[in-house]
């Protein structure tokens, strides 16, 4: 009934075609016996297929009646089913050269962290159990000492991510009060984290000072009132103002805060524990530098430059951290046991100068160009043997990015394998590569595909070339 009423107003030939679409049960009968899949997936695949056929017919395209058969439709059903049976959340090869790629999972964890995850995931643990007293313990105490040791802070706390960290600090210190921020630092960071919005959610009111490109100490000083609860500095992360600019040095902001007895907060965003100039990047204050400068609260991400799991780290003066710990909002933002396990393992690696650079994020930043070149040459050799008929293969000098909102202007010299498909359009090639069983994500630039080898592991060269062979249907 529904079908005939919906098809009213269409031509007889379309109506005839619609009637020729097989019924759901009939299609199920075709495949039920032959494929290994949950009934719900089978049904969904059939329904989607039939809806697609119907839509195509209504739009005037669609199959001929003699093609609406088991022989034609079963392979289509199997394709849809294969997609449903494959995990939605899976591995990809990141050949973009962006090390901390927010869309591809940011930082990769070192083996020590993975071992920690496996243990606490499959065994009971002392997550909130004090093994000394036999009483209830605090999950935060498991990493607080390490965090303080590494950053030089008096106290620390870890929450779900840095956005949560900023929200929690503001809600604790500034709800119903004023927070002074420079106009040039009212940033939006990918994925809809905006300082003015977070401020609103926390119940604090934003007091903007200075101009977009220049803010002076007197701008802050003149904005201080009875209601001022915090002087906030925000790392500009993913953008930069160039030209006639001026920011207030952190030390001056700290002195101003002291003079007026107002705490100073620095949202570092990426927040590195190591001096990045050793990787040829611009020198930026480390978390330790900022604590040493006397900032009262510092927030940064666990999975950006730190190279750990998703987390928001809050460090600073004990008096302030204690207040934050008592905030009930904290319970809603708390980290799970996996985060704790991974974070502790990563922290411990930082104490060992020799092992620090085995943390994948740091390892990829530190990677010497000749190692990347060797990788590129290895891939090129493989591809020239197998793919020359389908694709032009070459290498090129490129620049990798740190990503994660850190240092947007700076590149790390790198090497890419350059592909120019001969038998496919570039857009088709890009989409097939993305759709491969093991998807490969590269950069399309100047009519060619670039695969930056900095973010492709040595052990990914063979799987990557296999994905390429499949795209060109070479066996
Ligand atoms: C990335 C970033 C955030 C958000 O951190 P998440 O860990 O992604 O929640 C906040 N502030 C700044 C300055 C950032 O760079």
From TrEMBL:
Cofactor: pyridoxal 5'-phosphate
Enzyme class name: transferase
Naturally occurring in which organism (per UniProt): Candidatus Desulfobia pelagia
GO molecular function per UniProt: L-seryl-tRNA(Sec) selenium transferase activity
Its EC number(s): 2.9.1.1
Catalytic reactions on record: L-seryl-tRNA(Sec) + selenophosphate + H(+) = L-selenocysteinyl-tRNA(Sec) + phosphate
GO cellular component, one term: cytoplasm
Xref: Gene3D superfamilies: 3.90.1150.180, Type I PLP-dependent aspartate aminotransferase-like (Major domain) (3.40.640.10)
Protein name: L-seryl-tRNA(Sec) selenium transferase
């Amino acid at each position: 009934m529904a079908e005939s009423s919906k098809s009213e107003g269409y031509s007889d030939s379309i109506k005839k075609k619609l009637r020729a679409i097989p019924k759901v049960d009939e299609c199920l009968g075709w495949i039920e016996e032959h494929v290994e899949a949950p009934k719900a997936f089978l049904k969904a695949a059939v329904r989607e297929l039939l809806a697609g056929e119907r839509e195509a017919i209504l739009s005037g395209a669609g199959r001929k009646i003699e093609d609406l058969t088991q022989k034609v439709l079963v392979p289509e059903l199997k394709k849809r089913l294969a997609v449903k049976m494959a995990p939605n959340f899976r591995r990809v090869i990141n050949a973009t050269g962006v090390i901390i790629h927010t869309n591809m999972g940011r930082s990769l964890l070192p083996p020590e962290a993975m071992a920690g995850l496996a243990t606490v995931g499959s065994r009971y643990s002392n997550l909130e159990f004090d093994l000394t007293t036999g009483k209830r313990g605090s999950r935060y105490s498991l990493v607080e000492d390490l965090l303080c040791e590494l950053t030089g802070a008096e106290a620390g706390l870890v929450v779900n991510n840095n956005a949560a960290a900023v929200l929690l600090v503001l809600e604790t210190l500034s709800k119903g009060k004023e927070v002074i921020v420079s106009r040039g630092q009212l940033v939006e960071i990918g994925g809809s984290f905006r300082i003015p919005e977070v401020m609103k959610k926390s119940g604090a009111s934003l007091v903007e000072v200075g101009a977009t490109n220049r803010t002076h100490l007197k701008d802050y000083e003149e904005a201080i009132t009875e209601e001022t609860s915090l002087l906030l500095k925000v790392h500009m992360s993913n953008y930069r103002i160039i030209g006639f600019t001026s920011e207030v040095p952190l030390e001056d902001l700290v002195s101003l805060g002291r003079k007026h007895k107002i705490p100073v907060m620095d949202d570092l965003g990426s927040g590195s524990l190591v001096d990045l100039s050793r990787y040829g990047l611009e020198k930026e204050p480390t978390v330790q530098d900022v604590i040493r400068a006397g900032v009262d609260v510092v927030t940064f991400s666990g999975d950006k430059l730190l190279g750990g799991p998703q987390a928001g780290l809050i460090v600073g003066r004990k008096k302030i951290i204690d207040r934050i710990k008592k905030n009930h909002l904290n319970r809603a933002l708390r980290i799970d046991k996996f985060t704790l396990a991974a974070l502790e393992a990563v922290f411990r690696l930082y104490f060992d100068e020799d092992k620090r650079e085995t943390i994948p994020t740091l390892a990829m930043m530190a990677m010497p160009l000749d190692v990347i070149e060797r990788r590129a040459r290895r891939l090129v050799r493989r591809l020239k043997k197998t793919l020359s008929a389908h694709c032009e293969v070459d290498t090129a000098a490129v620049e990798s990015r740190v990503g994660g909102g850190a240092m947007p202007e700076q590149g790390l010299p790198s090497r890419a394998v350059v592909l120019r498909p001969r038998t496919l359009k570039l857009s088709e090639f890009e989409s097939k590569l993305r759709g491969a069983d093991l998807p490969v994500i590269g950069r399309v630039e100047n009519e060619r595909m670039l695969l930056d080898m900095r973010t492709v592991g040595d052990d990914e060269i063979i799987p990557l070339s296999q994905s390429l062979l499949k795209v060109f249907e070479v066996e």
